[in-house]
């Protein structure tokens, strides 16, 4: 018998009832995050069946998806109704809610971790696919649909079959200017947008150990873009250090006990994974996408690939459709692609380190004429910290818009949208057709590339700035 | 829930890979409060094209969607499933399906199943050439039947049980109340809680580094 993986350890710790060989296990949920967009029907279902919320004390709500970021007042009546419904539901059930305008409000995947609600070895679910973000702590975290949100509200459990495991071994160290986002865009290009379907990914290697907890969140966040169930990073000193400064972490003896347990949360040296993917990161350069799924990416110094050269007919068709939608042609140098809008934000890259990186690249430069740049902090706490450090002055001096917290232009659900068929360099996670607005064309980039692109007006790396 | 053992109906082909839930229903339509009424939001972007298959009159009574690989990838929004159901779709067949999408579909009585790529190709060919082409998805026998084709699939055992017996998922889990309570007593004592006895939120020491 080989050793056990990190996934096995977290899984076994949460089995309420084993399903045996053939049935799913019933797993306990330690933290349930909810937001306005995917919860109303779940609460309605509970009301209809006269079921209470089992553990309001393990449930945390925020407003993030449909709220405006230029005002504390929600004017749109449809959004207001959805937000009002969340407020009423949380009020009725005694669930803590950080509303639009609250000091602690922000994107659900930014708020949970920064307040210290996510610890190693926990199970975390949310009606949002990017719940994978929390895997950065060594927590098993994944997105669920509204029926499952209702199930968790009612029972604090989910019936699940144990996924397969995939080790993602990053070998070597990335050079300066290569970010966690680039590592993941490179991985996605290598294995494809469905390349991890059915697996939980465990990110490993020296490069991961050297990555900050915030960078690990960027990495785990993008796991879902590979079709994975979840992403995991084994906790270590970096994790403990991050938690040490958080509210809601264990204190005193509890902290000691927790650390002792957390230290056991790593895959045994002889643990076997169902699959292993190796990515050499030592010669990576900044990565950007050209198509309409996150796996359609190339190095910034590269050109748009020729769909005709793709062996798989489905991939070829997808590439042709993507290029038609993006209004791009094969052979075009990525650096020659002009950009109308730059969006910095989202649960992928809207944390304080991301904003610092953007400010560092901008320096005292200005956004290119005709380019609109939006900087949207992932939470109000991030916003306050950025203002304390004076980062907002850098953004405003450059000509960027400095916003309140929310999902903003990551998805076309609130007033922040890419207008018409404009082209956007975005630090978010999805370049799907119409994701950022009806006909919007999205290029996924790192915060550093976003900042450099804003300055030049076409896709650029910080090294391109003179 | 009414028990579902199988579904037979006319097919509708969507020969395209990586159809994400943002295409199935754009986020703008996900601001509703109900579980129904999403039929017009289904593929809202693509339906602006009059030739799109979901606009063709000879497909309007189709109930079995045959799609390319990785259908339903992306967002967890259950609205994608509600929109398909509201339009009239009762089963989805593809070489691969988004995980969350599959769970959501089965929970709403949509038989979402995967078959090998060559089989799906055959079904797509037949469906494209004949709008009357019928497909049966049999969840009891775990097989798809169409013309002289017969192909088996795997499905989550619990989801299958609930569908066949017409049981409510939450009711089923609530029967394990004693296990849940026992588990709760054994949880690590330091796990975070938002209950009234938790420490009030402190300002992070030294900022958000
Ligand atoms: S920022 Fe984007 S990906 Fe993240 S939770 Fe909001 S909408 Fe989803």
TrEMBL record, chain A:
Pathway terms, separated by semicolons: Amino-acid biosynthesis; L-leucine biosynthesis; L-leucine from 3-methyl-2-oxobutanoate: step 2/4
Alphabetically ordered keywords of this record: 4Fe-4S, Amino-acid biosynthesis, Branched-chain amino acid biosynthesis, Iron, Iron-sulfur, Leucine biosynthesis, Lyase, Metal-binding
Domain of life: Bacteria
Binding positions for [4Fe-4S] cluster per the UniProt entry: 347, 407, 410
GO biological process, one term: L-leucine biosynthetic process
Note accompanying the cofactor annotation: Binds 1 [4Fe-4S] cluster per subunit.
Enzyme class: lyase
Keyword Metal-binding attributed: yes
Recorded GO MF terms: 3-isopropylmalate dehydratase activity; 4 iron, 4 sulfur cluster binding; metal ion binding
Cofactor: [4Fe-4S] cluster
Gene3D superfamilies: Aconitase, domain 3
UniProt-listed Enzyme Commission number(s): 4.2.1.33
Catalytic function, reaction form: (2R,3S)-3-isopropylmalate = (2S)-2-isopropylmalate
Domain Aconitase/3-isopropylmalate dehydratase large subunit alpha/beta/alpha, residue spans: 8-457
Database matches in InterPro entries: 3-IsopropMal_deHydase_lsu (IPR004430), Acnase/IPM_dHydase_lsu_aba_1/3 (IPR015931), Acoase/IPM_deHydtase_lsu_aba (IPR001030), Aconitase_4Fe-4S_BS (IPR018136), Aconitase_4Fe-4S_dom (IPR036008), IPM_dehydratase_rel_enz (IPR050067), IPMI_cat (IPR033941)
Purpose: Catalyzes the isomerization between 2-isopropylmalate and 3-isopropylmalate, via the formation of 2-isopropylmaleate.
Subunit text: Heterodimer of LeuC and LeuD.
UniProt-recorded name of the protein: 3-isopropylmalate dehydratase large subunit
Gene that specifies this protein: leuC
From TrEMBL, chain B:
NCBIfam families referenced in this protein's UniProt entry, alphabetically: leuD (TIGR00171), PRK01641.1 (NF002458)
Natural source organism: Amycolatopsis antarctica
Protein name: 3-isopropylmalate dehydratase small subunit
Pfam families: Aconitase_C (PF00694)
GO molecular function: 3-isopropylmalate dehydratase activity
UniProtKB keywords: Amino-acid biosynthesis, Branched-chain amino acid biosynthesis, Leucine biosynthesis, Lyase
Pathway noted in the entry: Amino-acid biosynthesis; L-leucine biosynthesis; L-leucine from 3-methyl-2-oxobutanoate: step 2/4
Positions of the Aconitase A/isopropylmalate dehydratase small subunit swivel domain: 3-115
Function: Catalyzes the isomerization between 2-isopropylmalate and 3-isopropylmalate, via the formation of 2-isopropylmaleate.
Annotated family: Belongs to the LeuD family. LeuD type 1 subfamily.
